[in-house]
Structures are given as structure tokens and as C-alpha cells.
Amino acid sequence: MSTQPEATDEHALQLPSPAVAAARQAASPGDAPEERNAEQDEEDEDEEEDEEPKLKYAKLTGSLTGVYRNGDSTSAFAVAGDKMVMGTHNGSVHVLGLPGLQGLRSWRGHSATITSISVSPVPPPPTVIRSDKGEISILSPGSPAPSIREQPRSTTGASATARQQKQQQSPAPSVPNTPNNQIYVATSSLDGHVCISSLIDTKDVQLRNFARPVNAVCLSPDYKNDRTYLSGGLAGQLILTVGGKAGVSEDANTSSTAAAASGWLGTLTGGLAGGGQGKDTLLHSGEGPVGMIKWSTSGKWVVWVNEEGIKIMRSHLRLGSENSEDAWKRIAHAGKPNKRSWTGMAAVWKARCEWINEQRLQEDYIGSDTLSTANGPSNGTSTATLKRENKVEKLVVGWGDTAWLLHVHEGGRSHSGTRQVGSADIIHKLQFRDCLISGISLYTPSLVAILAYRTRDDDDKPIDNSDTPSKGGRQRNRRTGLAPQLRLVNIKDGEEVDLDELSISRFETLSAQDYHLSTIYIPRPVPEKLLRESGKGALQAVWEASGGGYAERLFSSSASVMSGSSSGKDEKSAGLPSVSSPKSSMQGVLAAHTTSRAVDAHPFMEAQGLKLVIQSPYDCVLAIKRDQADQLEWLLEHERYAEAWLLIDKHPQIVDTADRQTWTNDSEPASPSGADPSTLADFFADGSDTQSSVIGAPGYHATSQKEKRRIGDRWLQQLIAAGNWSEAGQVAGKVLGTSSRWEHWVWTFAQASKFDEITPYIPSTQLKPPLPSLVYEVVLGHYIQADRTRLRQLLESWDPKLFDVKSIITAIESKLRSGEVTEKTYEDGEKGRDWRILMEALAKLYLAEGRSREALRCYIRTQNADTAMELIREGGLLEAVGEDIPGLLMLRVSAEQLRSSPPLELEEASSEAVQLLREEAHRGTIPPATVIRQLEKQGPPFQLFLYFYLKALWQGRPDQEQVAPRRKWDPLIEEGHALVNDHADLALRLFAEYDRDLLMTFLRASEMYSYERAASICEQRHYIPELVYILSKTGQAKRALSLIIGELGDVKQAISFAKENGELWDDLLDYSMGRPRFIRGLLEEVGTAIDPVKMIRRIPEGLEIPGLKDGIQSMVREYEIQYSISEGVARVLRGEVAVGMDTLRAGRKKAVRFEVVHGRHGAEDVDIAAKDVPTKVPNGEVLPVAKRNVMIKRVKPGHCVGCGDPFSEEEKFPLIGFACGHVYHLSCLLRANPDTADEKSIDRLIDQLGYDDREQSYGTRSVGAKVAHAHLINNVVKGGCQHCIIPDGA
């Protein structure tokens, strides 16, 4: 926003009137103007009727009869918190309490038209209390004065004068001295006076005469302390007044004596000289009359409008001492539009300004499908966000045909870097070509409410509006004005969201200056329970919760707002003096004067949220946002039942206001989280709709459901009347909820033969109470005759309990018996389609009735394999399968497949049934004889299935791998072989016909078939390998060999056959000698099986044998290979024998190591232990000799194993030790050996060894004696340790 008066028209949005836009769209060449206008008017009317309004209206004129008494009319209007103040053309001031519009006080402060009203400080909004029973009441400041609407109205001047004099003589009822009543009301008038009066003290009145008509006055928000206000008028001066004379009568300026005493000259001289008359300071002048002055809600900024444009300046409030020079400095200016239409009219058109409190705005309509009221920051803006953005204040200005939205910022830097007091930016600017703005306010964050005074009629023709007021302030004889309009306009793009024409009395005589627009805010009702639990005075608790000491802050008398910080930071944190006075100064007043009374107000005034108030000289109209109940009512009035039903379905709480009130009385209000708020602060922090408390109330849903059914019936009637049966059926599925209503509407559709439209939506589950079964039976009966495909769908989705199964079975059976539907009839080019549908439907109904066998027959006839198999396996119908085995095998095989499909495809299709029969054969339920008998009766076409069956019995499960020969015995396979062997000849024939590989397997594995029959079959089919096998089994080896040579010509097979039958070699040679190819084959393949010399000698001389050389070379190579292998094996054996001999010799040569320990057990005892030593071959290599598995018994160390005596150093006989660790006396070892167990043999051997009583050392013996001694000892110990046990095979 620039401080220079440049034109700002480039930011404007030109909006053509609706009539012009419609006329432009409808105009086309060749159409008559009258016809186009008529058609366009009708279309516009239809569009207006089809578009739901956003607001609803109520006239409050009947509640303000006291204001309009004696022919008086209003000229000024203001709403401040819970007060509504009106000024009249006769100079009277009326203060009313909200929301009941009860009169608090009236006085006559001027002798001419009142031009503006200002209130300081602004009291909090009305506090609504909801009792535990749900009753709504208002916190009221004591007993109110008699209501203005109760004051009698007189039509005669004499009686009115007498009554007025009587009222002046009698004392007026006092206004209770409560914090919300401690306000000052300032009024300005065309008589040149400014009157400032206290609401509660009739003697606290300040009068000031400026000698020229005053158009605007605005009190400081802290007027109670600083006695400061601004004023301006036709003199073109913006005057700041501080102080002034107080204590005179409230109507002192209406008497001639007082007026003379306080004339404009005396006022000015007194003010300049002091003398208690106040001080006037000229802040601005020279730019034409001042039309509007508004102080911002924070108190920091002041906006005023004169003939040249809009101006904003910094006030003296909330400035620190270091920034005191910033007071009353202008920060911005927006010039008036530079348009010809504004020439000479800027001073005539009254500007309208409104500072915005964003926390009290409504929720946006755009993108929202609800009509709930906002109770906090709108448009998703949190309180924290608003606190962060508290340096920006929003201002809307409407002047002439232009509207501005401005953002005012504190501080900042200019382009040159110097500090700025503040700045303002034009965010949006709108212009209207068909109206003047008589009032403006921001209704939602994106919608601005415009009170439009029309300057063009419906034909887009200008209206002769002479807006110059008469001397009395009104135009008495004008008859050209049109009814005003309230428009909701998107502030961003100028789109007109809603437009309503207002019903205003005598609007023809009014001008744009006669209308006013203001707002009323009603917060959420406070639960009485929270007030009781708070333990404080009611008003104090509410104000603390809603504003944090609101009353104490505004009505303090001990602190000035001048002490606040200029930076806008928290005063307490900055260490500066607080604005608030001690709390104890108010608690007594709050507790003593607050009472609760029942609401006596228009219902629209009770509704929470933001409301628009339109004031004219003769009317007062209230506009509020339409709620969901209003939307429902409008939809029903316009017969838009679909939208109405959906609305009530989504928001059932809007059904009935009266019932909702009853439910509220019986239930506790609940927060959205399901728990009651514990404190008032929690309550005000909760922005949920109070209607949410009744959602779960008993009886509530019953009422909403009842209303939904009623609307649903109307919806259906509307659709059926329009012939839209298809949509009616869909709607019926949504709106019909009871069996009686379903029965009624199904018969309605049935009588009109509209079964297809209603059937998909008929309930498929049981209702309570249930829908009569006749309804379902009639529908099913219709589709049995008309549409069998639909019948199948219904039986799949409908529970059989819904209808009489027997009656439907009878109907289907009758249809099948009639012959109209058979397996050969065609439906939509498909043979037997309807017959299959009816048979399957019959099967399902049989199952529902418990007739499983009949159901299985139906499934087998229709070849429904999956269902039939499931029924067989899970339904215990194995016996039933045996009655129709061919039908079971044909479940997945069609007649066409049976004729033309290859065996592999037929085997795959019948595999499940064949495996089932195989399993039953093993169980003994269905023996193979039964299957064979039934299949053979069916003739040749079913021989293939008989083969499949026998093959399955022989091979077992299909997932079982067949390995020949089998490594593991399988009882199931053996049992299957036994079952097939019972029918071996049949199996032989079928295997020979369909599976030759399986035939050979069968011939080799089975011995139950007839060899003669087998040989005959093989000869007939020329199966030579199979015939060879049979001949070999029957002892006809030579014939078999001749077949191999003569028929097969397979040399390898012949040689292999000869190897199995050794007596056939000569026959083989005899058969081969005349066949060169066989001779060569024998040379190459026979190897060493026969003598090659013998075979070569038998070859006839002169016989030419191709490849003879190669054959002989091959045979020679074979022998060479055999010789090489034999030689290598011999070499290996020789090496192993040599190693073994070396090991043996080394083992025999090795000694046994003895370990001797003396004196372990006694003085003469010794411990002797034998240890085995490694065996070394002659080349020094240590051989790992494997030890035998010998069980060694434990023996006490140092003792003889035989006698058990301990060893000593004086042993007479030698000691013999073994590698196992056992040590013997020689005599004891001889006794332990069975060969020398007798004593004679022992004595003889001892004598031979020289161990007798003669003392002879071993070292003195000769070599011969030593050799003889070693030989004898070897014979003694060759049996090894007699104490150790060597198991067999060790």
C-alpha cells in the first residue's frame, strides 16, 4: 500500500451484474429480444431455485418497537460484544443487551441525526450457559431495565410529549454495575456535538461542540484511563481530544442553555487554555470531510477515510517510552479510485471500515460439505498460528463501488533502510459496477459480506440515485431505490458465492448511507457443571477461560496501556508494568452481580457463531449461516429427496430440533474424545459442534431412521412417477430397511413387471421381522419362467432359509417335465444352457433339503465335476458313486471329447474320477469287478476308461515314481498288482492295445496271465520283444533266438540272450554264419565270452564280410584291454603282497619294551609294564598297523596275570610280556595255554628251556642254545595273551 495517491485501479476486479452476464450468454443473432429475455428470466429463476442459499434471515424489528416509537428511525448502529447500540434521527441513543435485545438504557444525547457510535472498551460477547437438563440461559448482570419493545407506542404528539416529560421526571432504572456494563458510549451528530456517556453512571457524561457537523467519532480502547477520542466531520479535520468536562446531564446538549454555554468557540478556547475542558489536537486536515474513523482491535492502529482516500496511522497505545514519538504518525495511504464516476461523489459516499477478529470468523463454504459453526480459528488455522501472526491485522474497507482487504504490519524497514513505524499492503481489491457498498465485513477467511445498494435495475439500466441527503439527514421523497442485497463474494477472485435480496421496509426512499452492516458473535454454550466445579464467580470463570482475565484487562483502573511494550512482546516477560490490575479488585463484583436467566430471544440470536446484522432506518434484519437442519428443510421443499436422504444419513443429528433438545436434556454433553472437558479452558479449546453430544442418545437413532424411511418413500415415489424404475431399484436397496416396506415396494415393482429393477437389491439375508417367503418365491418363480441365468445368480446369493425350498423344487421339476427346456434346446446359441442351470439349481435345492443323493445325480448329469467330487468326498456318498460309474468318469468329458479327443486328453480329464475309483478299490468299497462290469456294458467307447482304471490300479498313485526294479516294497502297489492279477487276461489285452510299454512291464511282473493267450496276442500284434520274453519263459529259447536274429536283427540283444542262456552259443554261431552283418557284430560285441579262434574258424571260407578287418581289430583290442587289465591287477597284487610280507617280518622282528619300577608296593616288589613299539619296515618307514578288536581286561599293575603274585627282583623264571600290557611268569603262561595246561608238559618245557634248579645265566649259553631257547619261547607265546579275549572275526 503506497503512501502516494497513485491510482490503484489495476488491482480491481470488475464484476458484471448477474443480469448482464445472463443476457450476454443468452443473446444470439436472429432471436427476438422479448423472447430471449423471457427465456433467460425463466432460466435464471430456475437456477436461483435450484441453488441453495447460504444464509437465512429473521427480522428483529418487532423486538425493537421502543426504538421506532413516535416515528423515529435509526441513523447509526454499532455492535460491541454483548451490547447493541442504536442512534436515531431524533438524537436518541438506545443500548440493548444481547442476545435477548432487552433494553438497558436510552437517552437523548443530540438534537439532530446521530452519525456514528463508538463503544469503549468493547465488552466480551454474551455468555450462554447450558444447564444439566439442556436448557439454555444467559449470564445476566442483575435485573435488566424494562425492554425497549415493551414501551408503549403513541400516535399522538401531545401524549408522547407528556409521557416523555413524565419519564424525564421519574428516575430511570439503573444499569447493574458489572464489568461488562462498565463501558462508555460515544455518539456524534449533525448538530456538531460529540457526547460521551457512561452506561452505568448517568452523571459521567462529556459533551463537546465542534460547531460543524461531526460525521465520525471513535473512542480509545483505553478511554476509561486516557480519556482520548478522535473525531472528524464536514470541517475536514481529524481531531484528537484528550480530557474534557464531565459530570453534566446526559441531555445537556439538547437544551439551549447548555448549548450556548458550551458553544464551539467556548469549547475551543477552553480546550486550548486548559480549564478542565480537554485538549484538542489537529492531526490532519485539508483533504475534505472525514467520513469514518475506526480504532483497531489491538489499539495500535487507527484508520480514517476522507475525500482523498484511506489513511492509517499509529496510535499512542502500546508504545514504549523509547517509541513515544511514533504516536499519531501516518503509515499508509490508499487513494480513491481514479475514475470519472468518483468525481464529486467521494465525499457523498460513506465509507465503511471493519477491523477483523479472525478467531470469530465462520468456516469457509468453499470445499466444505458441512454447515457447522466455527468456534475457533477458521480455515484450518490453529491458535498457535494466529499468535505467531499477531503482528498482522486485517482491515476491510468498503467505499462507493470498491472494496479493499488490507494487511497492516508493525515495524519493518523501508527501501532506504530507515525504521518504519508500520506498513500496510493491499491484499485484494474488488470493484462492483452495479452497486454501492453500504456495509462490509469479512464473514469467512475467504468470503466477504457486502451489503449492496443497487445502482442498476434488473435490466442493467442505471437508476437515478441522487445520494445528496436533505437537511434532516434523510431523503424524504425518493421513490427510486431498489431493495438492498446481501452478497457473499470470494475475496480472492471476486466470484459471487451467494446473493440474497433483503426485505426492507420503505426501501424505495432509502439511500446507500441509510444502511448499516455489523456482526454479532455468540460463543459456544458453557456447561453449567463446569461453572459449578470451577469454584469461581460465573463471569470471572467464563472470561478467564475465554480470554484469560478479559474483564480485568479491559476494565482495569490502576494501569495504563501506555506502559505496554512497543515490540508487542509479553509485558510480563519484558519486565514492564502490567496492564491488568490486581484480581481482587474484581472478584467481589463478579460474584455479586452475575445471575443466570432463561433466554428470551429470537432462536437465531441463540445460535452460536458469527451473525450478520443489517440495519436500516425502519428495520433490523439478522442473517445467520444455514445449518444442516435448514439444508434438509430446503431440500425437502424443493423435492430433492436424494440429497435430503444422503444428508440425513451422514448427519442424523439434524432430524428434529425438538427431539434433539429432548435428547440433550437427557444426556451429558460430550467432547469428541468421549470425555467431558475438565476445565473451562479445555472447553473453549474444544472446537467441536455441541450437537455431537447427542449422537449416542437413546431414541435418537430411532427418530433419524424413521425420518430417513419417510424421505426414502418420497424419493421412491418421485422416481417411479418419473418412470425411472432402474434408479428406483437402486434407491430401494439404500432406503428400505424394514420387512413391511420391502414387501410393499416389491409388490409395487412386481405389479409393474419390473422384476429386473428391484431384484438385485432385495435383502439376501434374514430381516427382523423376516420378509415373507412369498416375496422371494414370486421372484424366483418369475425367473424360472423368464430368465434362468438370473435364477442361478439369485440362488447363489440368497439364503435358502428365505423361501420355501419345496415349492421352488416343484416349480423347477415342472418346468423340466414340460419339455420346454431340455439338453438339446439352444439358448443364445448355446446348447442345453438353461437345462444345466435348472439341473444345478435343483441340485442346490436338494442339498438345502438334505437330499444329497438326488443332488449328486444332478451334478453328474450336468457334469459339474468340482461340485460332484466335493460332494462325494465330503458328503459320504461313496456308495452312490458305484451306481453310475460311467457317469462319474464322464464328469469332465463331453460327448464331443469322447468322440474326437486323443487318449492323453481323455486320461487327463478322467484322472480324478479314476483315482477315486482306485482308492475305493483299495478300501473295498467299490471292487474292480463292479467297475469292469459297468464299463464293459457301455461297449467299446468305454474300453479306454477301463484301461485307465487298470493302469491306475497297477501303477498306484500318479505322484509315485515307478522304478523297475523297485528298491522299496510298497504294500499299496503290491495290493494293486494283486487286484489287476485277478483280471490278468483283461489287463493283458488292454495293455497290449493301449500301452505297449506297460505290457512288457506287466509280462515281466505278473505270472497270472495265460502264456498261450499272451503269445497269441503278441503274435497278432507282431510284438517281437514281448513274444521273445514269453517264449523264453515257456522254454522255447531257440525259437526266441531265431526271432531275435530273424525278426529283430539285433546282434546285441542276441548276444545278451545267448549270455543268459549259455547253451545257445552254438545255435547263435550257426544262425550267424550265413549273415555277414551278424558275424561282424559278433566280432565286435562278443568280447571274451567265447573262444575267438573257434568263432573265426567257423566262418565259411570265401564269405565276404564287410568290415571284417575292423571287427577282428575290435576283438583284438578287446583282448589287449583284457590282458592289460589282468597284468595291472597282478602287478598291484604283487605289490600289496610284498608290503604285507615286509610288515610281517618287521612285526616279528620288533621287541616289546618293558618299564620296570622298583619298590612301589614293597621293598622287594617291582612293577613291570609291557609297551608295544611301532613297526618299521626295512626302509625305515613306520607302518600304521591296524589293531585287532581285542577286549582287554584290567589287571592289577606289578602282578602276574596268571598267579596274581607281585613281581620281585629275585624271580626264578623269566617274565613274558605282551603288547597288551599283561606280564606272566613263564610257568603261569604255560598253565594258561590250553596246549600246555598239564603239569608234565610244563615241567618238560621248563627243563628244555634250562630253567631248573641249576643256576645258569642266559648270557653264558652258546648260540645253538640261544636259538633253541628262542624257538621254544616262540612256541609258547604263539597263541598270544591268554588273558585277552579276541572275538571271532577280529
TrEMBL record:
Tell me a GO cellular component.
Answer: late endosome
Residue spans with biased composition (Acidic residues)? 40-52
Bias type Polar residues, positions:
153-182, 578-587
- Where the record annotates domain Vps41 beta-propeller, the positions are 183-241, 393-519
Q: Where is this region: Disordered?
A: 1-57, 116-182, 458-481, 561-587
| Lineage top rank: taxon | Eukaryota
Q: Which GO terms describe its biological process?
A: cellular response to starvation; endosomal vesicle fusion; macroautophagy; protein targeting to vacuole
Q: Which Gene3D superfamilies match?
A: Tetratricopeptide repeat domain (1.25.40.10), YVTN repeat-like/Quinoprotein amine dehydrogenase (2.130.10.10)
Short name of one Pfam family for this protein? Beta-prop_Vps41
Could you tell me what this protein is called? Vacuolar protein sorting-associated protein 41
Q: Which organism is it from?
A: Recurvomyces mirabilis
